[in-house]
Amino acid sequence: MELLDRYLQAIEFWLPKRQRQDIIAELSEDLRSQIEEKETELGRKLEDGEVEAVLKRCGSPLAVASRYRSQQYLIGPALFPIYQFVLAVLVIGCVVPRCLIWLGFLIADPAHSGYLHMENVLGTILYFVFFTTLAFAIIERSGVKLQGLETWSPRKLPPVRDPNRISRFGSLFEIAAAMVFNVWFVSIFWPGPAIDFYGVRITIAPVWQVFFWSFLFLAAANVAIAGVNLFRPYWTRLRASLRLVADGLGAGLFCGLLKAQVLAGISASSLPAPKAIELTNLINLWMARALPWAIVVTFVILSFDVYRIMRVRCIHLHGSSIGPAVKDLSNPMVNGN
Amino acid sequence: MSQSNGNHDLFENLRLELRRGCLSLAVLSQLRTERYGYTLRKALAEQGLEIDEGTLYPLLRRLESQGLLTSVWREEEKRNKRFYRLSPEGKLMLKQLGAEWQRINSSLNGIL
Predict the structure, then answer these.
(1) Residue A30 to residue B82, Cβ atoms within 8 A
(2) How many CB atoms lie within 10 A of CB B55?
(3) Which is more confidently placed, A76 or B85?
(4) Bridge partners of A234?
(5) Distance, CA of A100 to CA of A296 (rounded, Å)
(6) Which of B58, B73, B79 comes nearest A67 by C-beta?
(7) ipTM of the predicted structure?
(8) Contact B54 A57 (CB under 8 A)
(9) Vertex A100 angle, CA A99 and A102, to 5°
(10) Which range, of A21-30, A268-277, B74-83, averages the lowest pLDDT?
(11) Quick one: how many helices (H) and strands (E) in chain A?
(12) How many other C-beta atoms lie within 10 A of the C-beta of residue A195?
């Protein structure tokens, strides 16, 4: 019976302390009865291989012992989806911006890409995972009832979202902001040999003309898209694609502007000439240094635009669980295509 | 091949789920008379309901902690054995669960 004793000892190790002896005595009795019954049938002692087969059929020591324990978890099923969501937001919020910034530096300014140590990211992720898990485990253990889980009502749930619907307020705001900005932009930056800005004379390189008219054209295009969105407040593939093109061109132009050394000179009555040259160079340098950050922002904006196109395409092909949105999209008055 | 394995695993999971509640009822019904674990297993197996020791003993403990069974250690055939039987609450529960089982069974017979 050495195998049986070894088996019982292995199970005992994993059992709750208070019940160990009781459980082992009962299990031992059952297994000995099984073995004795087989021996009576065969008229001889069981060989080790046969005892082993009986024990193997019973299950591994850990599996057998685990059945005597009540189900245990660090974070219960009611809290787990919230835990998962919080963890995803924290980890994505930590990793994605750092990766994008690193990528931006790698593309635009490789000499300074080592400035961001990517190995620190892993440490930060572990830090977030550890403290989030700890916080949720404490909430679970303390038995605190989350108010939302106990006192929920269908009336308090957020309204059904339609990701393809464009807020009219948003479109109006976009138009108003663009108008104000364009008036300011044209009045200050109208192409000429120089700009007078609160007593400071700023000389701009001739290449500025290209940027100025391009920015103005794009601003007008964006106002036009926002205008259509105001009256047809659902994204269509055409408008989503136009927005992608406009944002892509705008971001490309801005990145080009940062690298173009567009500032030719600065002069002011109180500014000595050598200082003015130094300041001009410094501004051009910092504009060039800002390029990686501009690339990051561009990447985020364009990713969102592409995601929007895919979402519109997906709803167009497969429909949506949101009834009213699908019906409205099929309506040519709303669709706008 | 893997789909067949997947189907088999799924069937096994659903089968275990289906059996889980039935086993409690079967065990309670067999403990109207006093039995110890091994004879209880044999009694169930003879009626076509095989149950392994790793499932039976934790179930017996759970039912006892819920007050549906009582148990006592006693020597029989020169060995200590733990004998179980229904408590008064267990008898009442068996009656209620038996009636519920009949209701579910007749509904399912109609549905299937």
Answers:
(1) no
(2) 19
(3) B85
(4) A165
(5) 6
(6) B58
(7) 0.81
(8) no
(9) 65
(10) A268-277
(11) 14, 3
(12) 15
CA–CA dist A28, A35 (Å, integer): 10
Cα-based torsion angle of the residue sequence B75, B77, B81, B84 in order, rounded to the nearest 10 degrees? -90
Nearest Cα to A298, choosing from A290, A61, A234? Answer: A290
- Residue A112's pLDDT band, with cuts at 50, 70 and 90, is low
The rounded Cα B11 to chain-centroid distance in angstroms is: 20
Q: CA A123 to CA A129: how far, in whole Å? A: 10
> What CATH topology corresponds to B24-111?
Arc Repressor Mutant, subunit A (1.10.10)
Contacts of A7 in chain B (CB under 8 A): none
Sequence-distant contacts of A321-329: CB under 8 A, at least 24 apart: A322/A160, A322/A161, A322/A162, A324/A160, A324/A162, A325/A162, A325/A164, A325/A165, A325/A234, A328/A234, A329/A164, A329/A234
3-state DSSP: chain B helix, strand, coil percent, rounded to 5?
A: 70, 15, 15
Strand residue runs (E) in A49-165: none
Amino acid at A62: L
- pTM (two decimals): 0.59
Rounded CA gap, A18 and A24, in Å? 12
